[in-house]
Design a protein that fits this description.
Blueprint lengths: L2 E3 H25 L3 H27 L8 E3 L3 H11 L7 H24 L4 H28 L1
Antiparallel strand pairs: 1-2
Helix pairs in contact: 1-2, 1-3, 2-5, 3-4, 4-5
Length: 149
């Protein structure tokens, strides 16, 4: 199984959130439903904010955490999830919500796998904190989504 440093894994995850933000933004520009457009713009902002937050998190990580090596063979996990979720221009609000939640679950699964893959307490704590951040984002989505319905 290949190994990667935590900083490279986090960079891959940041890239995923950035690409997802761009995809939501692009879809929002092609929609004809105002509610859907607002939801997609909201999701795009949320993904980009999470990406920036993750960047700040990297800067504040404890010494040595980012340089820790982990066995990591899930490089394609998020890329495949993004391809298979099937976001497209003709989706309705409920479909977009379902896709966003599905992608978030994939990210949480990845964080859990990474937390379980290390014996280093600080690295485990990093991924557990990211799980909490991602789950908090899901709760924010749920509250905001109720407003769209």
């Amino acid at each position: 199984m290949p190994s990667k440093q935590v900083k490279d894994i986090l960079e891959h995850i940041r890239s995923f959130h950035h690409r997802l933000s761009e995809l939501y933004e692009d879809l929002s520009e092609h929609g004809s439903d105002e509610r859907l457009e607002l939801l997609l713009k909201y999701l795009a902002r949320h993904e980009e904010n999470f990406n920036e937050c993750l960047g700040r998190y990297e800067k504040d990580a404890a010494k040595g955490v980012l340089e820790t090596w982990l066995q990591f063979a899930a490089d394609d996990t998020l890329d495949e999830a993004l391809k298979h979720v099937g976001l497209h221009e003709d989706m309705d609000v409920e479909e977009v919500i379902r896709c966003a939640m599905s992608l978030d679950r994939k990210v949480v699964e990845l964080y859990r796998d990474l937390a379980d893959a290390t014996a280093a307490p600080r690295v485990r704590e990093l991924f557990e904190n990211l799980i909490e951040m991602e789950e908090s984002k899901d709760h924010q989505y749920a509250r905001s989504i109720l407003e769209f319905e």
